[in-house]
Amino acid sequence: MRGEGPLKVKNILISQPQPDNDKSPYADLIKQYNLNICFRKFIKIESIGAREFRKHRIKIPDYTAIIFTSKNAIDHFFSLCEELRVEISDQMKYFCPSEAIALYLQKYVQFRKRKIFFGKHNFTDLMDVIKKHKNEKFLYPCAENHKKDIPQLLKQNKIQFTPAPIYRSVPEDLTDLDINAYDMLVFFSPFGIQALCLNFPDYKQGDVVFATFGKATLKAAEKEGFKVQIKAPSQNAPSMVMAMQEYFENQGK
After folding, report:
1. Fewer beta carbons below 10 Å: N end or C end of the chain?
2. Residue 133 half-sphere exposure, CB side, CA atoms within 13 Å?
3. Architecture of the domain made up of 46-169
């Protein structure tokens, strides 16, 4: 291990963009354990484009409601509509899992004049709202390789919906990174693992600590033969920061 001190972890690479301000959730960890944390986006989101979208034979004006689960989905959807020259009806209803995502719609629609619904925190909350509008014909703009949990939940509740793949995740070019300079690598999606393997096909984990968030990310890492020491979320550590804190505390004992 290349780190210093009793924890033997000094340099950490977080596979996410640099936080917009100094209020990073990792700030306390950096101070408490004297860490060097580098942020680097491992994946990027790109639109599939109008030509490819037309292959799905989805006619957006045929729908009466849209489910948005992220700001990415909102951006790519309205960009696609502009490219397709599709006008969204003033009667369209919008459903979002949180108020933050719902408020982001103001970038594209007049918020007060639209029928916008949102849950308290997550999609399960939103499902209670959607069930009150069962007669709507829902469009679900999503990633090309989207998770299946939301469609399954909609099917279980007999909601009429169509998934609409409008963007995809692709690996970033990371070849300028000295990947061997880090004692810990932190991943948040299977595409992050894919980006590591594509950019550094000869990479050997050795004593490097791997941290993953989510079952799919953990599965992707283990499939590539990596040993994952930090697995989040857990009952005691619902966030990655808390999982790392727990790991450091256990290592210090």
Report:
1. C
2. 20
3. 3-Layer(aba) Sandwich (3.40)
